[in-house]
Amino acid sequence: MLNDYVQCNPEKIIFGRGCEKDVGKEVKAVGASRVLVHYDAGDFIRPLVARIRGYLEEEGLEVFGLGGVVPNPKVSLMREGCRLVREKGIDFVLAVGGGSTMDSSKYIACGAYYPGELWDHPKFAPITSRVLKHGVVVTMPGTGSDVSTAAVWRDDTCDPERKTCVFANEMRFDLAFIDPELTYTLPAFQTAAGCFDIISHAMEDYFCAPDGVEFYLSAYEGVINEVMRNLPVALRVPDDYAARANICRVAYVPLEDVIISGQVHGYCVHNLEKPMTGAFHRTHGEMLAILFPAWMRYCHRRNMPLFTRLCVRCFGAKMNYEDPENTVDEGIRNLEHFIEDVGLSTRLSQVGIGEEAFGRCADIAIETAGVGYIGSAIRLDKEDIVNIYRLAR
């Protein structure tokens, strides 16, 4: 049954070719005058950053820069950004990049005047201290952070390093510029990893959808099928605008309140993944591609009708009414073939992660959840988590 909900969509999304050229006008329109441009560590982003600075300066805005964001963004860099905001009187934070840069920018915008450590902010509680206006020029679709209330950070000041996810409405961006042409030059691996992140969000919410509401299941199936149809095209022809635009359009759907309001949330596989990316510094979407098939193999008997439906409607399996196990197995194998075909791994051993890490990562997952298990619709304890890691070896 549909749950009660309050919907909040404050983001202004500007989508299409060349939309980032209006960044100066849009940022100025929200009352900003001193802008921090926050961006990735790679040299590939610098020409775009230079253009963005130019668009901002054309509108008379004073611009400051802070680069250096890496996958699984570091709290140490975010704290540096907070200090810069206070020292320079910055009133707008603009991310230029993908999910890690978005999440790092959210920390700076929400944490610069936070009384304490934003890392420890209670999940879903409002942030009552001053929050800067913030926006993003998206260069990599996948995380959905451009429309979500969430941010994922890595504490690189402790040993072992850890990741956390904090939720607050104040973390939503005020502006999001999504130009599919900016994704043309993404490396194939990053394109594939980002696309599997989109698929993973849809799959997580698929199993949390309320009973009797077909809309949710159909919406998430549509997202999965759209990505699986367009990703191979984007990899073969990187400047195929239609394929890139289709991916960019559905990328944020599983995180958008218009879609997800009214259902319970409780990501499971993401919580399997976080301890491993925190400890081994692997790419988020890459790890999800490894863990999702193993999770499906382990958990499918807990909701056989929904797993068989997913495997038939999205992963090309034929429905075997006499032996639904066969249907799920075929769907998982087809999903693994797709993952391999787009250049991602399907086993932990392929990325250098061995069984000696499983127990510790399971402990971190349970500890981070704080309730003795992870997941919502399908709950997993430590033993379950270790067993799934073993299936993914």
UniProtKB/TrEMBL annotation:
SUPFAM superfamilies in UniProt: Dehydroquinate synthase-like (SSF56796)
Pfam families hit by this protein: ADH_Fe_C, Fe-ADH
Keyword Cell membrane recorded: no
Domain of life: Bacteria
PROSITE patterns for the chain: ADH_IRON_1
MF terms (GO), sorted A to Z: alcohol dehydrogenase (NADP+) activity; butanol dehydrogenase (NAD+) activity; metal ion binding; methylglyoxal reductase (NADPH) (acetol producing) activity
GO (cellular component) term, any one: cytosol
Name recorded for this polypeptide: Iron-containing alcohol dehydrogenase
Species whose genome carries this gene: Olsenella uli (strain ATCC 49627 / DSM 7084 / CCUG 31166 / CIP 109912 / JCM 12494 / LMG 11480 / NCIMB 702895 / VPI D76D-27C) (Lactobacillus uli)
Classification of source organism: Bacteria, Bacillati, Actinomycetota, Coriobacteriia, Coriobacteriales
